[in-house]
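Appendix B. One record, verbatim.
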Amino acid sequence: MKETDKYDDIIHLARPVSGRRVRMTNYDRAAQFSPFAALTGFDAAIAETGRLTEDRIELDEGGKQLLDEQMQAVLEILDTRPKVTILWFCYDERKAGGTYVTTSGNVKKVDTYTQRLLLTSGQAIPLGEIFQITLEK
């Protein structure tokens, strides 16, 4: 007897259908064999570890003087709500360091009490984290 002859009596029979259970969809059947994350949150932890942050650069005296001049130019025309582009350091909430962010908008107010520059969009930028201010014409 050959190996292929072993199933000749059943090979052409119809597939059995259960009278008690509803037939499973192909999607549900495939889901049984799909991969799963044995360690939930592991991929997110790896991605967080791999995310790069920068160190904050301290301005030298020349840089501080230039920034002060840029701020004075903005304050002189503050009532016209000047359009500016600001390069500032935004600290990361989860890791040491942060990133430098460029924000553009119209200056609404410089709040000396909270030490923030407020834009008309509602965004508040900490004065101590501003690296450069460019006054748009």
